[in-house]
Each structure stands twice: as structure tokens, then as C-alpha cells.
Write a structure and sequence with these properties.
The structure is a homodimer. Chain A has nine helices and no strands. Chain A is mainly α. Chains A and B meet through helix 8 and helix 9 of A and helix 8 and helix 9 of B. The structure holds a DNA duplex.
Chain lengths: ~190, ~190
DNA sequence: CTGTTTACCGAACATTCGGTCAGTTGACAA
DNA sequence: TTGTCAACTGACCGAATGTTCGGTAAACAG
């Protein structure tokens, strides 16, 4: 049953892997073809071009994140609990869709595709930032650090996971999320 | 006394700025020339080429970090205190040399220059990792999270500062370091 | 004024880039 | 056996890439 060749999905999968190794701009269609074991032109049979490949990958990351913040558990309840849930789910999505999210986190805004992704990402950030602000207003997070700064540092920590996490080696995503929450919420000092 | 033109230093300064905006691979010598207000060829009068520009920038970041971990305060005393000092200084260096460190944190390893920088960076990481492990052995950091993981998350948070910090707007580097330490060491929950 | 040096320009270089297209291949259906 | 068609190749395109080079205007030194 195994088809010998590729399809749009397998091309995207391989492409995203190479994009993350070399960087999007540092990856040529020739590099991509080599990784797929075909010629450059074969890629264009399955996929319209390089930038669309990027676009599809970024959408995959963003769709995951937006689906999450659309969930009831991100929208009702005590802000600190919603925040905890969002952090936990963010780590999970990062782990599930690792290469796609990694790509998203490295976007510069060099093309319409990238600019669009950046805008959606900022929208996500605004949602989280509002959550932190609410939790601070509730008196559930320390008042001596600016909520905007808390948001950036907290999600800086979460997002940094993309730089080193390997699903094969590292522990389960759940354990990872647990570690993040322990450190960020309760601190690493005994 | 002010010369009208550029010199190697001013070219590097501008170049690093553009590299960070567009990404190193996403920046052409033409982009660079435009930012400098000269032609492409003029750049080669001041500087040997694109990759050397990168190399000099990366060295500037790495030299700062290695100078720090060479300091006495990173090498003697209680591990947890040394760790705190290293975090504080890391934030300071990141703020001082922001564009250079930002560039370093985005390196992929696509050229000998980048591979060399990556290796030096890993050496820095090993130093910090050893510090955290020592502090854990001393019983000064929570024992329920793997020290290697603590290192990555802690410095993931520190390094994420490069993605948004603007010396003009954001508060002082000292205040920033203080916020990082509060969250990471004592947690953001009240 | 003359000669030299500094800082640059414009044109061109070879190479690589993303992308196109006419044609080939091989599995399968009739 | 023949015809179809999805999957692919190889040759090629114009544009963009990093870099080189011959020339030159302006500042300066004698």
C-alpha cells in the first residue's frame, strides 16, 4: 500500500524540519529537494512554492494556539487559574506541533506571509497579557513586577522550550508543563 | 573633526541592526548598503565581507559572556549566590550588548563562523548548568525539577529578553534583572 | 600647485536563487 | 497490449546574490 512518492503533507513535514535546522531564509529549494530525495522541480508538483510552505506551517502553529484560547477554560474562571491552564496548554501545543511553533517564533516579518503571522501572534500575546493583568488585579500575582513584564518573561520561558525540546529524549510534555509552572509560579528556591 | 563617512565600527553597528531586523540570511549586502546610505561596493572598503561582519558581532557577544564567567564572583562562594550573580550579569550584558547577543541567540550553524560561535555558546551553557547542579546539590534549589531543565528554563527566560527589550523604553537593566530573579527564584504567585 | 591617500561609485563577475516547462517513467486499468 | 495518468527529471529562465575591480572626486600633505 505504501506509495513510493511524496504528497503535499510529507513535503511540508520535511520542509519545516529543514527550515528549522538552517532557518527559512537559509534554506534553498535545492536543500529541500536533497532532503526529500527528489529534484527541485518535483517539489513544485506537490506544492506551489517556498513561501506557501512557510504560510501553511505558520498557520498550523497559530491555529493550535487560537483554538486553545477559544476554549471555555481560557475564558471563564479565576484569572490565575485560566493563566495556569493557558500556560499548560501552550507547553502542550508547543510539544505537539514543535517544528511549526518553532518556525513561528523565529519569524521576522520579511514577507506578507510573515507579517500576517506576526500580527496573529501579537493578538495571541495580547490575550495572554490581559490574563496576567487580570490576575494581578485579583491580587493573585506579585504586585512588585509590571504585569506586561511578567507576561513577557513567563512566555519567554515557555517559548524557549522550542529551542531545545526533543520529544524523543526529553520527558513528557505534561511533566515539562509541570516544571514550568513550578518554577514560574512558586520559584526555584527551596 | 568628524569625518563624513563610515568606518569598520559604524558599518558593524548598522549591519548588526539590520541583521536583527531581517535575519542574517534574510539580509543582502544591498539592504546593508541602503541602510548605510552608500553602495554595496563601499562596504568592502571598510570590511572584508558579510560573514566576517557576523563573526565580529558574535565575538562581541561571546567575549562579554566569557569575561563574566571568568570573574571571581562566578567562581567562588555559595553556588546559589554565584548563580544569582551570573543571572544578574547575564541580563546586564544582554542589555549592554543587546544587538550582538540577539544575533548570537539566533545562530543556526550554517557556516564555520556560526558553528564556532555555537560551540563557544555551548561552553557557556555548560558552565551555567554546572552551577545549577551544584546549587541543587547544596539543597538550595527545589529538588523536584531536574537541574538541566532548570538551567534551560531559567536561561530561556533570560535570553527571551533579547526578543523585545528596547533600552530606550523598557526600564533599567538592573530593574529587569531584579524582576527576572524575583520570578525565577521566588515565583510570581503571592 | 602637485602628489598621495581616503572613501567612495558604477559596472561587471560568477554563482545561486526560486520557479517553469516539455518530456520521461512506471504502475495500473481496460 | 495499449493507453492513461500521477510523479517525477533535466534543461533552462531571469533575477538576485556576495564579491571584485577600475576609476574618481575630495581632502589633505608637501
Amino acid at each position: 500500500m505504501k506509495k513510493r512518492g511524496h504528497d503535499p503533507e510529507s513535503v511540508l513535514h520535511t520542509a519545516v524540519g529543514v527550515f528549522n535546522e538552517r532557518g527559512y531564509d537559509g534554506t534553498s529549494m535545492e536543500d529541500l529537494a536533497r532532503a526529500l530525495g527528489v529534484t527541485k522541480s518535483a517539489i513544485y508538483y506537490h506544492v506551489p512554492g517556498k513561501e506557501q510552505l512557510l504560510g501553511r506551517a505558520l498557520d498550523r502553529a497559530l491555529d493550535g494556539l487560537f483554538a486553545m484560547i477559544g476554549d471555555e477554560r481560557a475564558r471563564s474562571g479565576r484569572a490565575i487559574d485560566r493563566l495556569e491552564w493557558v500556560v499548560r496548554r501552550s507547553v502542550a501545543i508547543l510539544a505537539e506541533r514543535l517544528p511549526y511553533v518553532t518556525l513561528l517564533l523565529r519569524v521576522h516579518g520579511n514577507s506578507p506571509t510573515e507579517l500576517g503571522a506576526l500580527e496573529r501572534r501579537r493578538e495571541f500575546d495580547r490575550f495572554v497579557s490581559a490574563l496576567v493583568k487580570e490576575a494581578a488585579a485579583d491580587g493573585d500575582v506579585r504586585p512588585d513586577v509590571d504585569p506586561a513584564l511578567v507576561t513577557r518573561l513567563l512566555f519567554g520561558m515557555v517559548n524557549s522550550i522550542a529551542e531545545w525540546y526533543q520529544p524523543a529524549r526529553g520527558g513528557s510534555p505534561d511533566a515539562l508543563a509541570e516544571a514550568v509552572l513550578k518554577i514560574a509560579f512558586d520559584g526555584l528556591r527551596v
